[in-house]
Amino acid sequence: METIAPFELLRKLETRSKQTAIGLPEQAEAIQLWNGVGFSLAGLRFVVAMGEVVEILHLPKATQVPGVKNWMHGVANVRGRLLPVMDLGQFFKLPTQSRAVREKRVLIIEQDDFFSGLIVDGVLGMQYFPVTSFTTETSGLTDSVQRCVSGSYVRDDTHWHVFETSALLADSSFVDIASG
């Protein structure tokens, strides 16, 4: 039995592989994707970057707080932490959807010292978009919502508005919950 040096064996294997690969399609360039959590609000579709949402909950039981604006749903105890829960649709003065309470969800955001829950009409799961489908187009949104949207991704002629929680937290009317 003839012994072939390992290097020579690898060279023959490479040559044979290249010969059999002739005619096969070349590998297409990988598409870069952006991903986030999809949610609905007043019939519109939004997506928030993965790193901005720390948890998604069913609507927890909350204690109402006197002397606050109507969009402040209350405060809930979530694993020993007090979570202020705000109704995002009411904050933006969007028309309410006739959705069952069991379909509503709370997106928990935590940035620096800010820990809060945002009530949305529903969560639409993980969404992936080619980065090339991003547009700065934000038409069809009220001015109040538009301040918190950086653009949208388009898929199947549907705009998924990119919601920026940092813009929401920078909005003084959101941070000031006291009615007055």
Provide key terms for this protein.
six-stranded mixed sheet; 180 residues; 39% strand; alpha+beta
The dominant shape is elongated
Quantity of strands, as a count = 11
User: How much helix is in the residues?
Assistant: 10-25%
| CA distance, first residue to last residue | 95 Å
Assembly of the depicted chains = single chain
Q: What ranges have pLDDT less than 50 throughout 5 or more consecutive residues?
A: none
From the alpha carbons, calculate the radius of gyration and give it in angstroms: 25 Å
Topology order in helix (H) and strand (E) letters? HEEEEEHEEEEHEEHH
Describe the protein.
The chain is of the alpha+beta class. It contains five helices and eleven strands; from the N terminus they run αβββββαββββαββαα. The strands form two sheets. Strands 8-1-2-11-10-9 form a six-stranded mixed beta sheet, with no helix packed on it. Strands 3-6-7-5-4 form a five-stranded mixed beta sheet. A hairpin with a 2-residue loop joins β10 (149-155) and β11. The model has no long low-confidence stretch (mean pLDDT 90).
What secondary-structure arrangement, pairings included, does this model have?
Elements: H1 6-21, E1 33-41, E2 44-49, E3 55-58, E4 72-78, E5 81-87, H2 88-91, E6 105-111, E7 114-120, E8 122-130, E9 134-135, H3 143-146, E10 149-155, E11 158-163, H4 165-170, H5 172-175
Parallel strand pairs: 2-11, 5-7
Antiparallel strand pairs: 1-2, 1-8, 3-6, 4-5, 6-7, 9-10, 10-11
